[in-house]
Structure formats: C-alpha cells, structure tokens
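Give me structure tokens for this 612-residue protein.
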Amino acid sequence: MGEMLQNILSPRSFRLKVLFISIICLIIPATITLSIYNYLTKDTLKEQALSSANRELTIANEYVQKLLEDMMYITNFIQVDAEMNTLLKEKAKKQMEDTPEQKYQQFIDDSKINKTIDNITMLGGKSYVTILLKNGRSYTNYSNFEFVPTDLFKEDWFEQLNKTKGYETVWIGSQPTMFKSEKKHNPYQISVARTLRDDNLNIYGYVVVTIMENKINEIFKNMTGHEEMVLLDSSNHILSQQDEKGIGELFRFHEQLKDGNSSNIFQISKMDYLIAEQKISFTGWKLVSLIPYKQATNKVNAIFNKVMIVQVGLFAIFLILMTYFLRTITKPIACLGNVADIVQKGNLSIRSRIRSKDEIGRLSTSFDLMLDRINEMFREITITEERKRKAELDMLQAQINPHFLFNVLNSIRMKVLVKGDKESANMILSLSKLLRMTISKNKKIITFQEEIQIVLDFINIMNMRQKEKVTVEISVDEEAHSILIPRFILQPIIENSIIHGLNQSAGTIKLKTKLNENELIITIEDDGCGMDEETLNHLQSKLILSADSDYSMPQHKKGFSSLGLSNVYERMYMTFGQEFKMEIKSEIGKGTQVILSIPKGGCKSNVQSNAS
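Here you go.
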C-alpha cells in the first residue's frame, strides 16, 4: 500500500509528473480560494443576516410605534385641548344638576365631550377611550355594558397613576381584556393612562386609552420574514407575540438581551440563534426578533451552494481540458522517451522524426543528429582500430631489426672498450641507450630527469659526429626531476636546434626550468642563426594545425628520432589537453627559444592515465 502510494506521488513518467504537478497547482489555489471565500462569506453572511433582521425589526418597530403613538396622541389631545379641559374641569367641580335647564346644559356638554372622543378615535385602529373624573363621572366611546369605568379605581396600577407628576404617562402592559365583547377573540389588552390636572396641578380626572393586544400581534404576523417577534416590557416579560400562550411570562432568552438597539448571534443546545432588539423610547418597552441562524441564511446559503456547484463544474471541465492539452503537448516527449528506450537496447537506426518548431522539436532534431554522429563515430572507430592493428603488426615486424642491432652494438662496445678506446665505447653506449629507449614499448612515460639523460646522450653522439661541439647548459629545479612527461619530447627540439639553429656548428644550448604555483615552464634556447618572422609564423601555424589533424595519419618527420616539432606539440596536447602551451620565439642572428608550459597540478595524473 505504501509503495503504491509512493508510486502515485512520485511517478516515473514525465507526462504523469506534468499532469500531477498541474493538478496540484490547480487544486491548491482553488482550495485556498474557496476556503478564503467561505471564511469571508461567513462574516458577510453574518452581517447580512443581522442587517436583514434589523431591517425587518425596524419595519415592525415603526408599525408598533405608530400604534402606540396614536394612543399617546389621544391622551395628549385630551390633556391639551382647551375646550375639552374647560368642560372636564367644570364637570369635575359640579354635582348632579336637577333643573331642566341644568340637565339640558349637561346633555349639551356631554355630547361635545363624546363627539370629541369619537373624532380623535376615528384615526388609526379601534381604541377604547375612558375619561374618568374623581367625582365618579366618566366619558367613554363604549357602553357601560362593555365595562363599568369606575371599576378602574380597583386596578393595581391605578395607585401608580396617582403617584405620577405633571404629564407623566403610565403604560400598562398586557392584561386580560376588560371589555365583554372582546374577551372571546382578544384575550389581552394594552393601555396607557395619564392624569388630568387643574391649574394648581391637582388631579381632577384620568384618561385611559386601551387597544387590543391582537393589533400588535397582527403586525408580527404580517411581516414577510420568518422571525419570531415579541414585545417585552422593561422587566423582559412578554407583552405580545405571535403565539399568545406565552404573554405575561419571562422571555426565555432574556439573558442574551443587551437592553438597547443591538443584534447578535448566540448558541443554545448547539443551535445558533440570531436575536435583534430595538427600544421604544417613550414606553420603556422593546421589540425583539428571534430567528434560527440557519433559517436566516437559507437564501444566501442557497446562492453560495449554487456558486460552489458551478465552480466545481467549471473546475472539472477545466481539468479535463487541461489534461487533454497536456497530453497533446507531452506526446512528443513520450515518443522521444520511447525512442531513447529502443536506442538503449542497441538499435541505433531508429529516429524520432519529430519536426515541430518548439523546444521539443529542436531536442528531437538534436537527438537524431546525435544518433547520426554516433553511427559515424562507430565507423571511424572501426577504421581506426583496423589501422591500429595493422600498425601494431608493422611495429612487431620492425622490432626484430632494432633488437638485433642493439645486441650487435653492445658486443662492439665491449670489444672497443677491451681495446682501450673509451671515447668510441661511450659513443656506442649513448647510441645503445637511445636505441633502447626507442624500441622500449613499456616506457612511453618517463621522468623529466630521464628525458634530460636522453638529451645528454643524443648531444654526446652529435658531438662525435660533427667537427665542432655543442655545449649544453642545464639548469633544472630539483622538484622538476620527478615530474612525468612523454618520452622524446626534448630530443626533437634539441635536434632542431643543432641541425637548423646552429647548422651543425659550435654553439650553446640552454635547458632550464621554472616552477610556478600552477605550472612547470621548460625553456630550450640556442644562440644560432634564428628565423625570420615569415618562417616563424609558418612554423607556429603548423603547430596549431597539428592539434586539429588526424594523429593516426603519417607525419613528415625529421631528425634522428623521426619526430618533428609538430609531433611533440601533438603528443603533449593529447597528454595535457588545452592547459599545455608551446611558444616559439626567434630573431635573425640571435637564436631561437622554445617554451613549453605544463600544468603542474595535473602532470602526474594526466600522464599516468595515458601511461596505463
């Protein structure tokens, strides 16, 4: 299971990797975006739900407040209307009249008062108005059959009304309906009461305006939302709500109220509720709306779910399109991979033949060209190996004569030495050493000290051959003796100096070395005739061309060893690479100088690898 999961997470196919990475790069931002969107939407959702609840509550509050203001308007009118106050004050002072004139006047006054009451109660909904004087007289817009006004003196709240000052108002919360015709359909009523005072602020009467609680209840029921609305008094007892069963009881969520115009979300029994409240300033009461949070956000959640479904659908479509296009793009890469697998099995004749103009097309073209080049190199290597085997055979045949000649020379040296001719014996010894070094197959790489000995033996032989001797001055650092170089590197240069530089005449050849931090510099200098600039340039150009030429082809060779300067440069370049430098300096009449620069740090490793 773990291995399967690892293979899924780290596929070997490049195409699957591209698809996997693309899907991951698509899913992660989409997930983060949706998470952030969801997080931000929650806050917006909450704000919108609270705003919606407050808006609905404000509308309901305006209706309720208008209803209560109408009640206040009636009390205010009776309180401040001059004619009404004059008549009521007179009625409060007088006793019952007995004469016909007095009774008629009383009838006229009572009619005016009742007509005024009827006029002010025509606006708005139905309300019951009671004007009760201290002497027991009363004026109402209902009959005594409905309710006897003097029974108000027996109410508990009436004592509170007597304690008010000035124009203070007493709001009486929901109570059982007093009016007989209303009791069946409207079990509760709401009233407002105010005292009537004379010029000395003494109470001479009372005014009570009453409406049925169902008027407020109907406002709640007519609201378009799904809120549960209640009207609470200052002690959070229910005055009105959609369900009339709870009137008079303490509001069950009273602890979550903040006693002001506010809204918040709270949780009860793992369920969120949204509660909003607004205060009715002139009554001390407040209007509260309560709704489950999920219900408040149903519409927005539905929109969010639709958006989510659309986004997931678009994501799926985009994923399918992306997979299709990625497969189209990566198909040439898969084809190139299959070609590479076939080539790995040894079939070099196959070609990808993808010729698009993008990077994959260029890579395919380069791959095909590489296979062509490999086939060409195989053919060249085959030809080279055939030449090498032929050369080894020729060399084996040629070794017979040098061995025979070396043995004969050694015998001659011994006979000459026995006869006392040491000079001839030394010449033969030097020749034998050179011959031994020439035919030795195991010493392709020698130390710099051995190479110097070859140079000394060669000069010894040359001095015996020519009339005038060549002097050699050697100045070599002790540390340079152990450095390994290919054999017969210095001898061709010395040979050229003797034959071409000194013209086989007397002269001096200086061999010296200089060790720097990163390289060994070998300088061979003669005091011969030198070269002109044209000859020098021609010689240097031949050296550069020799590095790029096919070293398996036969070269034009000069001197004792048949190795020219070009051969020296080529062998040193093959051994040390581009870090090897060879420079030739010459002036007419001043001699010639050959400078070899060998990398010090890489001499032994490079040379040893070639020696093996």
